[in-house]
Amino acid sequence: GPRLLHGFRFEHLSTGAELPTREALAKLPGPLAAVLLELPLRDAGYLLPTWDELSSFAALCQEKEVPLHFDGARLWESAPYLGHGLAEIAGLADTAYVSFYKGLRGLAGAAVAGPEDVVAEVRQWRQRMGGTLFTMQPYAVSALRGLREEVPRMAKYHDYAVGLAERLPDLGIAVFPDPPHTNAFRILVPVGTEVVMSRLLTFAEAEKTVLTPPWRPADVPGWSWSEFTVGSATLDWTIDEAAALLAKVLLTD
Amino acid sequence: GPRLLHGFRFEHLSTGAELPTREALAKLPGPLAAVLLELPLRDAGYLLPTWDELSSFAALCQEKEVPLHFDGARLWESAPYLGHGLAEIAGLADTAYVSFYKGLRGLAGAAVAGPEDVVAEVRQWRQRMGGTLFTMQPYAVSALRGLREEVPRMAKYHDYAVGLAERLPDLGIAVFPDPPHTNAFRILVPVGTEVVMSRLLTFAEAEKTVLTPPWRPADVPGWSWSEFTVGSATLDWTIDEAAALLAKVLLTD
Predict the structure, then answer these.
(1) DSSP result, B49-74
(2) Contact A136 B108 (CB under 8 A)
(3) Where along chain B do its domains lie?
């Protein structure tokens, strides 16, 4: 998109399962128009920097006078691990994007926060690119529900994820990262992808419950991985029940 | 938008209250990448060409081998005047855009119809420009309701508009076009804009009913104009009642 439409050029601070670091930023030849951090880094297993790493990264951006943007699609889910309030976290960046349809469980949509003049420009570009809808009421309503009902539960979801990730390895399910940084983490099993998918679907058909998104082959032959996300439905089970169920469904025929 | 983002250059087939004609197209120096017709032409008072004019215009596009696109935001409302079915009308164009939130009374959204390869390209550009939402279910649901409940009433709305436009001049309200081409037309009164707006708002406050969109000064000093759109709520009044009410609210203190 942005490359083709606007001629943007991207430099990567990190690739794969690595977090962008202050050191990587220091080494990048300038000048940079903006720096973007995804919090958490989903393709790395929902990894987060520590608060100290994050604030030191932000300080370097300020020093270099380059605007820092947070892709905070799961920023709500990141606050418990970072150990700071949402306003403090967002305060490290110049602009922050948040998603309405992930942790907030809204229908769709997003918001960008930042200084008034920057947001006015964002609004103009949204109009130019055809992104201004006649009404966004359904999205706004469902996002407001999420802010009221989901955000206060994020610490509970994170605690549950940490507890579940602690139990799973003993039952034969590997986890990454350990402990999880957010309410979501990777789970890995020594089972072929087709077999584990067929077990998941058999369970889904019988119980009308989908435990995980689709599985993919891991780097290690014979292993597969998927993501496990803790949400309000997960809390219907105790951690022991959830761990036992995952092991039963994913590891036995 | 398109000018700035994609370097599009536009030539106008007509400006102001004139309809684009086959003659105007024939005179335009080529080559053209595409020709766009708005049906009806809203800024001209919801004007439509006749079916013969439209099909002859489309034939010239085919002759010139330039794709014809219908901006059919109010295409549903145009079918009764054109006297042909929606599929026949759309069949004159290479691609057609329809709106979900005007005549269909959906929440927002639109659709583009055309040959598979063109729509595949449209889909790709929608993605690139950030217009692909995680879900569009609320819009789709409300548009489907409109297709089922509003489209079959379009002829009735148009008939009502024609009947109402016939009654209004005797009561001191001018109309354009006469007869209306769709379910919407312009109404004009020999009253200053502030006065007519204040009468409209007094009525809206008392009766919780907004009769028209905001009024604007007409070219003729002392006159003002607005649009009147016939929809399902209008049918709660007989044509005589609606005409009398408009005259009472707009023309008397």
Answers:
(1) --HHHHHHHHHHHHHHT--EEEEETT
(2) yes
(3) 2-149, 153-251
